[in-house]
Structures are given as structure tokens and as C-alpha cells.
Design goal:
single chain; about 190 residues; mainly alpha; elongated; PTS_IID_sorb; transmembrane helix
């Protein structure tokens, strides 16, 4: 009985520690994420949804805009997973590459912009805690992670272009490289 009681006590202690951590987050990171979301929505409201859509269509025509700028702007403005919706403006051929670049960016920007992927913030906070114990600045690490991420996300998108070309060639599938800018047909 002693072991069962000890296990139960340890089990409850785990949840008590989790509750304390959650309370710390509610008083520290949650307000920051909330304010960043408010800023993002305010920017979209000021710029206008149609202008944001026009920007996304224009960004799809250039490889640097497609895999550097569009993933950054859409992740910042829309967060994860909504950032993936900007692929609707891309030609079918480039959608896999955009997805590869965007999926990586939602992770590499978390230290500087926690509102992009708040569900994985605990990963960044764990890394940051180790860096803080070493007496180092976490923001410098976050910016380095962001910059390296931008380069690697671009390379990931670009390499996926080659992968898509290979799959299309070997399977006989032909994907359009022209963006469908028309409205969805009503039925």
C-alpha cells in the first residue's frame, strides 16, 4: 500500500507542477502572445484583406518572394496553421514547395514572434531556459535562429521545387505553373 500511495502522491505532484508552470505562463507569455495577435489583426484590418491577397498573388511569381517573403509575412500575419492558406494564390506546381518552406518557418520564428506558433512555445522556452542558465541572451539566439531559418526555409522550398519536378517527370503528372487568379465558380 505504501508504494501505491507514493505513486499516487508523485502522480498528483506532477500535475501540481504543471499547474504552477501554467500559472507562470498566464502571467508572462500569454499576454505577449495575445497582444501580438491583436497587432496582427489590426495590421490586416488597416491594410485590407484584398491588398493582402494581391500581395500574395504578386509574391508567387518570384522564387525569393515565394519562399522568403510570403512565408514570413503570412506566418507573422496569420500564424500557424492559417499561414498555409496563402498557398491558394500559388500555382499547383509551387504549392508543395511553399508548404515545405512555410512549415519550417512556423518553427524557426517562435523565439522572436511567439504568436506564430504558440502551441510549440514550450520547445523554445525549454531551449531558452538552458541558454539563460549559461548567462547568455535569449533574444540573440532567437534572432540567429530566425535568420538561419529564413535561409534554410528558402533552400527547403527551392529543393522541393526540384523534387516536385522529378515526381512530375517520373509519374507523368503535369502541374500548372500559372496561378489561378479567378474566383471560384458558383454551382
Amino acid at each position: 500500500m505504501k508504494y501505491v500511495a507514493g505513486f499516487a502522491k508523485g502522480f498528483m505532484h506532477l500535475f501540481q507542477l504543471g499547474g504552477k508552470q501554467f500559472a507562470d505562463w498566464v502571467s508572462s507569455i500569454v499576454p505577449v502572445v495575445l497582444m501580438l495577435l491583436v497587432l496582427m489583426n489590426a495590421i490586416v484590418a488597416l491594410v485590407g484583406e484584398e491588398r493582402m491577397n494581391h500581395f500574395a498573388r504578386a509574391a508567387s511569381s518570384n522564387i525569393f518572394m515565394r519562399y522568403l517573403v510570403l512565408p514570413f509575412v503570412s506566418a507573422f500575419m496569420l500564424g500557424n496553421p492559417m499561414a498555409f492558406t496563402m498557398a491558394r494564390f500559388l500555382p499547383e506546381y509551387y504549392k508543395p514547395s511553399y508548404y515545405a518552406s512555410q512549415a519550417q518557418f512556423c518553427h524557426t520564428s517562435n523565439g522572436v514572434f511567439p504568436h506564430i506558433n504558440p502551441a510549440e512555445l514550450f520547445i523554445w522556452m525549454g531551449i531558452a531556459q538552458g541558454v539563460q542558465k549559461l548567462g547568455l541572451d535569449t533574444m540573440e539566439l532567437a534572432i540567429r535562429y530566425l535568420l538561419v531559418g529564413l535561409v534554410m526555409n528558402f533552400i527547403g522550398g527551392w529543393v522541393t521545387d526540384y523534387t516536385t519536378a522529378y515526381v512530375c517527370r517520373t509519374s507523368g503528372i503535369q502541374l500548372s505553373k500559372e496561378a489561378d487568379t479567378g474566383k471560384v465558380a458558383e454551382s
